[in-house]
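Q: What residues go here?
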């Protein structure tokens, strides 16, 4: 049985939405809201290209629309009222209600900076975090500026899309996450942390958070799957250099004390 061009178009759109909403989040990660919208718009544009690819397919597609707009039959007049008045009102009511939000109470308290482990396994190498009082990058003072520049490049290739150009957690994908990506400029984030702590959080990401005090909220990827140890230290050096914050320094007892300016 030959499917009409309208049914083909509808099935294509439904299949695309299913892939974007179900398949992609299942195999990788949820698509941020703005990017999801662009995917749907692109799908609609592809469908338009298909239906307008020939005069016959375009005529088949547009003929019912022309009848809806111009036909003076007993059926078309009430159908026009539904399509051009009732449907827009329902859509307007739905989206205005969705945008307004509800009176849902806030979620439970969550720990912003969980206690780090004493050591981590990074790409097969055991790193004792509590023994790292200063980043290895900072010990190479002769090449520190070069390391920071490399960190800037790595940041814009990998981190910029979520944490933003100004390092305030307002990147292109930021609206797709709740809670939003960390604001590195704020006094409550990296200004309170040691560089070894940041190394742990970046390397292990959200999936590497400890099980205590769950649930955790973090969409941070596991960056050790993509970056080397030196590259992570370089990104960290770039974050502190750009924000003007001083990293806290781990003492040998495992605690933090603030670094001076």
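A:
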């Amino acid at each position: 049985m030959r499917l009409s061009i309208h049914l083909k178009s509808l099935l294509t759109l439904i299949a695309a939405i299913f892939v974007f909403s179900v398949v992609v989040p299942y195999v990788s990660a949820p698509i941020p809201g703005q990017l999801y919208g662009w995917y749907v718009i692109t799908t609609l544009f592809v469908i338009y290209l298909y239906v307008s690819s020939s005069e016959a397919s375009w005529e088949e597609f547009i003929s019912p629309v022309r009848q809806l707009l111009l036909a003076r039959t007993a059926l078309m007049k009430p159908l026009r009222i539904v399509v051009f008045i009732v449907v827009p009102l329902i859509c307007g009511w739905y989206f205005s209600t969705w945008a307004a939000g509800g009176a849902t109470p806030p979620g439970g308290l969550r720990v912003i900076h969980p206690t780090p482990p004493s050591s981590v396994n990074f790409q097969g190498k055991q790193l004792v975090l509590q023994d790292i009082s200063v980043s290895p990058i900072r010990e190479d003072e002769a090449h520190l500026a070069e390391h920071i520049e490399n960190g800037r490049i790595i940041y814009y290739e990998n981190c910029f899309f979520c944490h933003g150009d100004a390092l305030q957690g307002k990147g292109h994908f930021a609206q797709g996450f709740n809670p939003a990506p960390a604001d590195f400029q704020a006094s409550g984030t990296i200004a309170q942390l040691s560089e070894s702590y940041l190394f742990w959080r970046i390397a292990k990401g959200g999936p590497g958070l400890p099980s205590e005090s769950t649930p955790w909220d973090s969409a941070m990827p596991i960056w050790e799957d993509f970056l080397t140890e030196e590259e992570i230290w370089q990104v960290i050096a770039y974050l502190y250099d750009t924000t003007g914050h001083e990293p806290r320094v781990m003492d040998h007892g495992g605690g933090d004390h603030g670094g001076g300016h």
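A: Context that may help when evaluating the design: The radius of gyration is 26 Å. The chain has a mean pLDDT of 82.
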